[in-house]
Design goal:
single chain, 8 helices, 0% strand
Length: 191
């Protein structure tokens, strides 16, 4: 097999792992396993995509770097958020198993905060996949695009890509709120 085919197979495998992780993270009885799998998948994809994007970043202009860095920043943001969420939930589960037994189910309002985080992550996943596709298919076009000439001519693909990139930055910041709220749960629920 050639290198390009292997790359597509790797991306497809990560895509399937993300879908499986999202599916199991929404089920009450497999939520912790789903979040753990999501953490492992996200960490693996972060390492893989960083190694794939570094050659692009080394020869890129500011516009292309903005797009590629948004993907990396989004993945790093979700890596840290998932880490803190998993630590908090596992801590709560341990406390609950000593007093109530298993499975530990979060109260409705706290569950909504966790669902908000998962919702933001799914949106960012879809936006990130779309942006990654645009970067790989338009790398030369993006590398010849300057911010100063972005709105002067017909640069629809570049503008859409920039909007997707800015969305990833915004959602990465926005998802810190549910992460912070979930991190406070072990202190809030003394079992």
């Amino acid at each position: 097999m050639d290198k390009e085919t292997i790359t597509y197979i790797n991306y497809f495998a990560f895509f399937i792992l993300y879908i499986i992780s999202f599916y199991y993270s929404y089920n009450n009885y497999t939520e912790i396993i789903g979040l753990s799998l999501l953490f492992i998948t996200n960490t693996s994809f972060l390492l893989y995509i960083t190694s794939r994007l570094i050659p692009i970043i080394q020869n890129a202009n500011l516009f292309l770097n903005t797009l590629t860095f948004s993907i990396i920043v989004g993945l790093i943001s979700f890596f840290t958020s998932l880490l803190f969420i998993l630590i908090s939930i596992l801590h709560l589960q341990q406390k609950a198993s000593n007093t109530q037994g298993t499975p530990f189910i979060l109260p409705k309002n706290e569950k909504q905060k966790l669902n908000n985080f998962k919702y933001y992550m799914m949106i960012t996943f879809i936006i990130g996949i779309s942006l990654l596709y645009l970067i790989y298919n338009n790398e030369i076009l993006f590398n010849n695009t300057l911010f100063s000439s972005l709105f002067r001519s017909n640069n629809t693909i570049q503008i859409i890509s920039l909007i997707l990139s800015l969305s990833i930055y915004s959602i990465s910041i926005l998802q810190l709120v549910p992460t912070y709220n979930i991190m406070k749960l072990p202190k809030k629920f003394i079992l």
